[in-house]
Every structure is written in C-alpha cells, then in structure tokens.
Amino acid sequence: MSGESGQPEAGPSHAGLDWPNPERNRAGVPGGVIRRAGAQGPRSWIQKVLEQIMDSPRQCVTPSEVVPVTVLAVQRYLLEDEPRDTVPKPPLYCYDVTISDGVYQEKCYLDPSLNSLVYQNILKVGIQMRISRVSCLYNEKRIGQGILCIDNVHCGETSDSISLETPFRNRAHQEKPERPLRGGKSHYLALWNNEDPYGDIWLTDKQPEEHNFSDTKIISLSHLEMTWTNRRNFPALLVRILHKSKLRYYGKPDKKMIEPYQTFLEVADSSGTVSVIMWNALCPEWYKSLRVGLVLLLQDYSVKKSYPFRIQPVPVDPQIKLISTMEICLNLRDPPTNIIIIPEKQVKPEWRLPKLNHRFTTRSELDDMPENCICDVIGLLVFVGRVQRSKKKENREDFWSYRWIHIADGTSEQPFIVELFSTSQPEIFENIYPMAYFVCTQLKVVRNDNQVPKLLYLTTTNESGVFITGHRGQPYTYDAKNANRPSTSQAARVEIQESNGKRHQDDEPVNSQYFQTTSTNLSLSNKIRILQGPHANPVAVPQPGASVQTKGIKPGMPSIFNRRANTNASLQGKARKTISDRWESQLWREKKFGLIDHLHYSHVYPESIPRKFMFEHRKFLSEQYNSQPAKYVPPEGRPPKLDDFKSARSLGHFEVTILGLNHEIAIDVAFLPMYCPEDIRTSQIDTLLTSMNYSCAYPQDTTGNDRLPGPRAVAGDIIKAATELDRVHIVGILDICNLGNNKVEVYLHKIYSPENTS
Questions:
Q1: Same domain, 375 and 454
Q2: pLDDT in tens, 185-216
Q3: Region (Disordered): which ranges (predicted)?
Q4: For site-directed labelling of 89, which of 161, 462, 488, 705 has its Cα 20 to 30 A away?
Q5: Is the distance from CB of 269 to CB of 240 less than 8 angstroms?
Q6: Element (H, E) at 75
Q7: Strands (E), 306-436
Q8: How many Å apart are CA 601 and CA 736, to the nearest integer?
C-alpha cells in the first residue's frame, strides 16, 4: 500500500501485493454518473479518488491520499460469460463492497484477484481498510458513467465507531431491489452458500384469499395422470402442500437467466400425491410465503414427464397413491401460473384433502430405527455448533453450509445428534441457540453398528424444515394424535397442548425441572476432516521437501502429551491458574534439537472453545458462532467478550507433538476430547482407552453411588494412556482450521495404528 511517499507499504502478503488487474468486460456496466464535486459540502475521499481517475490517462491509479474507509457490506453474485468467450468457464463469483469514508457511501467492484480475502474472512463487514489502488470500469454506452473498482487493499481491524447515516454518493445504489454492479443478474446471492434466499427480491407478503369456486373447474391428480398427454388445457388443481424442498440455484456463467432458481413441492389431493416444480422468478415471489400444510389452487400450469432419477419423499400417508409418471410445472410465463392460497376456514370436508401426518420419534426409539429411516424430532436444544462449510465439488466455489446440534427430549440420557444443513431458512438457521424449543422434520437416520463406538445421528434431507419460535399455528401442532401417543416426546406434547389454547410465550425460557437441569453449550468445534467456510476454510500446511497438503493425514509417533486447562475463578475475570500435566518420551528428548522443521499449530483460540450458554446474551453468542454477515449490523450496547463466558470444556485441551517417521519433522497439534461430567448427554461417549481414537473421553463404568471422577483424574488417565503409545507408529488424522486473519489451528481428530486402519 502506498503511503505519503508513494512507496509500497509493508503488509501481509495476501493483502499488500500489487495484484494483477485482469481484463474486464466493458459492456453492461450500470454505474453512476462520475462528476466533479461542487464547492459546497464536506470533501469526500471517495469523490476525490473519482476525480483523480478522471484526470489520469492511466486505467489504474494510486490515490494521492490513502485514508481508512469502513466496510459496510460484502455482497456476492455470479458473473456471466463475456460475449467473446467461446469455451464455457467455471462459475466466477464476484463481490461488490460497500465502503464509507464518513461523508459518502460507495458500492465498489472487488477485483476477483482479491476474492481470497473474502474466503479467508479477512475482508469482512465492520473493518477498516486502506485502498491503495483503484480503477474505473466505464459504461461505454453512456457518457460519464462507470463504477469504482478496488484493485489493492490492506485490511485492518474492526472499527469501534461505525455510522450508517452517511448517504450514498450514487443514488442508484439505494434503489430497491438491490442489483449487482456488473452483469445482467437482478439480485445478489447469499454470501456463503447458494441455497439461502437473500435480499429484498424475496417476498413474504402472500396472504390467503377466499375464492369463488362456482366458475372453477377442478381436476383430480389421478384423473390428470391418466389424461394429461391428450390435453392442451388443464383444469385447476386443489391440493395441500405436504413437503417443501430447499432452494436449488442452477445459475451458470453461460446461462442468461435472471433468477435461475428451482424448488419442489410435494402436493396431494384425495386421489394421490405428485411433485410440483416452481421455476425461476416465481421462487423469489412465492417461496418464503409457501409452507407445509397450506391449501393451494393452481391454475395455468404445465405438465411434463417426470425426471426418472429423482427420488420423491416418502408419502406422509401410505394410503395416498404416489404419482411418479408426471410433474406439475409452475412458471412466470409459458404459461403464467396463477397461485392462490386458500384460507383454512374455507377448506371443506368433502374435498377430502389429506391431513399432515408427522413421524415424531423419541430419542429412546431412535436406537432401534434402521438406517435411512425418515423421522421428525422435537425437543430442547442443548448444544449448538458453529456454522461450517463443505465443498460440493472439487475446484468449484460452491459449498454446503451446515452445523451440528443436540436436541434433548427427556426420553433418554442421550440427545438427538443432528447434522443440520441449511434448509433455505436462514432466519432460523442463523438464530438458533440452546434453551429453545426446536422442531426438525424429514430427518434421515445415519448409523453404523460395526464401528466402536457405534455411529448414530440424524441428518437433514432435501425436504427438511426447521422451526424454533412461534410454534403456535405450525402444521405439526394440528396433528393431535401426537399428544396422546405414549412414545411422543415431552416437548411435542407441551407444544401441542399449548397450541390448543394454553399459555404460550415464544421467547421465554422454559421453566421446568427437566429443562432447568439441562447443561447447555455453544461450540465452534466438531469432528470434521477438513473444515471449510468463513470461520474455517481449508488451509495448506507446508511440509519441507513435499507438496503442500490439504489432507490432514500425518504418519508418525506421538512424543509429547501436555495438558493445558485454564480455569476462571469467576465470570468477572479474576486470577487464572493453569493446570498442567505433562509426559515427554525419551525419543523426543533425543531428537527434538536435530529437527529440520517443527510446526507449531497447537494453540486454541477463544472462538474455538465451547462456552456455557447465557440466555441474556443469546444474540451475541449466536453471532459469534455464525458465518460473517453480508451487511454490517450495529451491536446493541457494549457487547461482551468471549472470554467472559465460562468454558464448557472441563478437561481443557491437550497439546500433542507428533514426530515424523524419519525423525526430521514434528508438528504440535491440539487434542480436545469432549467430557462434561455435569451432563453426560452432551459428551461424545466412548471408553477411555480409545479416547485418542475418537476425540472423546468417558470415565470407567461406576456402580452404585460411586461418584464420577473429576476432570483432573480423567486427564491423568489420558496422559497415562498416552505413555502406552511411546515409539508406536501411528497414522493421525488432523482437522486443519483457518479461522481467518491468519489464525490457524490443527486438531488431532483420530489416531490409527498400522495394524488397525479401518
């Protein structure tokens, strides 16, 4: 970055280099009018930079004065192919960055060579940054119009004072809905995945309306199945929504579709159930207003042969016929579909529309359920993990967003463990916290009884839906049979009873003995091979004499096992004491001074330590364990610090040094076994002797009134178990985590011996 002398200023290698400026498409640049500022009003740095560009014959310029600006928004979209491209290119996601200099706001185009700053969570909302090189992308069809392009930046720390009152210099940037600066797309995508609806094009105001059926001809689904190939016009359908899928974004650089979205609805009448596909611009208009249980009148739809490889969800009622030979298509045109939500009070019994039939299961029943079985669960959240991402395909920028949660229902000592992928409900996915009632539908059982310990958890499907507050009126509360079924969870019964007229407070913590004694935690960590996302991107750990690896697999021998446990005397941050248990092998004493390289990645940062949940700070804690937002949101009051919250990991963490087989390279990694003696439901259960294999610790079985050993005793047993691995060849699987801002952690996930690599 250039200072007053004009010389490059030292800075991080990822932000301070002179990035090349790739050739850009000069067509279709909306931009705003670039004009000189008058004599009135305060001088804006943004305005001065634009004037400097106008006066310069060069395409790129270095601002004569580099001052910090504040990042207010980082928004993502797909850039289309340029007209001269003959070979389709992989998707190129671009970013518009809104900055403020204290006088004006300006939306700028971020050079794609700087995209890695967003991926690594370095360029994010709320920070101050210095822009050291800019250019202007002109609209060649309009005189005096263009957009400001950021070509080189240095990203700083989060700003303490940010004002959102500064106006946009270009009024076009305030138009609704917001539109990207480049290309023909009409909207932005969610910042971290393509499944979540984002922005003001997604409407939520579709309301039920009474309909006069006297002049409406209705056809049943079964009759339509038999006759659709011989029809040119189709009568109306009167159906109930049984399932709703998450959104699918199928935009590609070579496709000129403005809103390339698709979603599936499974609908039914008295004669059968069929798939309905909603396409393109209808999705932003209708997706957020349609929910399971609504009755729809569909007119001016089209019918086509069903896609042979799509698997429909299991019908909610086994008596309903599953129609798989055709699909109903809803489009904004060809023909323009008419959708009407029928009020429930207008639904007549003689229509015989199917009722919803939820498959609520309890945790005690889950142990006997087969793999791939579908179920619904309801209970109290007792654990919420951080948002993570995993790549859909290698060498692509498309990711799945997911997090791990635990749900307790009072029927078992064990919780439901759920791998919760985004269900296109970001308003819920990003705002879940312990102590809240939680409902998740259409979950699939994942199990493996052959491994030790046995694998058993639930994962979301394409049709899964989640609910956290405002349970009154949701479709599952009308399913009265769940209230009387002995195996239905305690939480489900409470919810159904309250929906029938009992006192209900959506946002109040539940006051009952079972819920009061539940230990509730938030955690950033889980057992994932390679963590991806705004808080955990893949990072390469360089190894001398070898190519950079992103696979966290390391052969070697464990040499040092050092436990560190910081204990706070109180939440007010009184004196801390460090408990340390240490074992060091004789081999390490002999080899540690002759290493070629010793990699140090055992430090555990505050954001990776699970915290005890405090209800009054639920918003702050939820924000800490979510992905970075696309737009800056001012904090309420003076926010606390993560260190103010008590750790939920009573064992602390262990620092493990693994020595390479050739005794030339060693790496320090962190080992974080889960152990929570206050509430065994939140622990990842395993026997002590295999704790190194499964990242968890569990005390030996106790009988009668024997007390569970404390964390100090368990930690000592783990250190003792580590001594048994002295000079033993092992293969370690490491979780490599990039937390952003050059903070890297490496965790020991699992250890295999060569004799047992299953």
A1: yes
A2: 778 999 999 999 999 899 988 999 999 999 99
A3: 1-30
A4: 462
A5: yes
A6: strand 68-79
A7: 322-330, 338-342, 374-385, 388-391, 399-408, 416-421
A8: 9
